[in-house]
Design brief:
The complex is a heterodimer of chains A (167) and B (392). By secondary structure, chain A is an alpha+beta fold. Chain A has five helices and nine strands, in the order βββββααβααβββα. In chain A, a hairpin with a 4-residue loop joins strand 3 and strand 4. The two termini of chain A are 26 Å apart. Chain B is mainly α and 392 residues long. The longest helix of chain B has 37 residues. Chain B is globular and about 70 Å long.
Amino acid sequence: MKLRESDLPGIGKKFTLHTGKGITISLVVHNTGRREIYLFPSGDEGDALCVIELSDEEARQLGTLLMGAFFTPVIVDEDKIDLLLKGLIIEWIELSKNSPASGKSIRELAIRTRTGASIIAILRNEKDIIPNPFPEEVLKAGDTLIAVGTREQISGLIELVVPRSNK
Amino acid sequence: MEFNIILGLGIILSALFISAYVVRRLRVPSILIYIILGLLLGAFVNRHSEGVLNIFSEAGLILLFFFLGLEFSIERILVVARRIWAAGIIDLIINFGLGFSIGYLLHFNVISCVFLGAITYVSSSAVILKLLVDLKRSANVETEIILGILIFEDIVASVLLAILSGIVGSDTGSPAVFTALFILAKIALLLGASLLIASIFASNLRDIIDRISEEEFLSLFVIGSVFLFSGFVKFLGVSEAFGAFLIGLIFAESGRLEPVERIALPLKDMAVAIFFFSFGVSIEITGDFNKLILTLILLFFVTSLGKIISGYLGARLSGLRDISSLRVGYSMVARGEFSIVLAYAAPDGLGIHTLSGFYILFLTIAGIISMIYAPSLARGTRRVFTRRRSGL
């Protein structure tokens, strides 16, 4: 994967990425904050195959999704994005009915020891918040776990709580 | 009855607004509309309002160059200079050369030929930049080369303007060559001094702007420094526009562009509109009509072709392939604001204003069309040439 940054005086900045499949993706960040994502066929000369235009806010939302946060809270503020950029992820994971984790306690699952991620809160029935749950807390289907960790730790946690068939 | 200057200015500004509003959906750049309006309304602008217009258009010129300077940091200039110098020099030689030669062939005097060369040399950054963004070509490979050449041109043209207006302004008896050398020395000194000021006082300037960025007198500080510096440079016998460009460079080094641009932009937009309007007013068809038409036709075809060729060669040298290089060529044809600024510096009575006014009108429109169809034009051109080669 090669990433190249170049200056577009009067327009903004351009970041070009050549993917493993031979596609060239160019991201243009305009001085106005608008973003454009251009897709070029392999030869990368000529006009783009398609262009996606995003406002500053839309681009940030899409960015968090691309970074692996599948579920976005209502408000994504800048502080959270900063955390994401530093490699620390706060993740919202909803437990489905057939999640292997439902009915088990956090201690039983050994989440900290097996994945390294920590559950900092549980959202239950969409209105109850259990902050800093004890290890004895039993997880239920429909819970949303709010977990913090590096990207690898979080994906380990997802492995653990999301049923195999759903992946 | 005394002439009501406020009413006159109000009518002009409103007319500019209405015409810009009406054509805003078309791809026609607003400066063309301002010039055409000046041309049409020129007869109604009387001597009283002319004085006011002159003050505003002078301010417009200065602020235009101030903003140009703001766009450049010293670092950016060095990067462009390293990457694009060969393409830039080819562009200068071919296009300045063609304009100069046509003037020479048609028996214009030497100073007019130099002005023609300068006017035909500079492509329009404003038109080309806007179209690149509108046509969704910002990420194309050729765009980096186009932008590089445009920056190179803007810098060279700023210096050219300083030299030309210096030569026109000085009425010493010494030969033009000495005058030019003397002015060149002054320009180099001013540039050096400005870069020195920029690097020494960048942090002080940043502190000042930070401290007063929310105060209402920030505008007094910014506009005041711009006019003070430009006026001082003019006092030294170099173009005030070049001075404004330098103070723009100094402000750019402070790294605090946002408050400065926010405060100066509204005044700049208004004054620049009046500048182009006044230029339109100064166009009048006098003298040899046939010669005007002949010159226009020659300039139109030869210098359009010149840009296509120089753009192609420059892009090839910068490592682009055939088809993209042709697209660079077809994207460089538009001339605009800078050519007008250069023509504005020409002395009256040479007919340069009128000639370049029409030249720019035609070449802006031709440039826009050529740029929109650049992809198909480039493909077509290559097909013609490969067929000819294989036919041999």
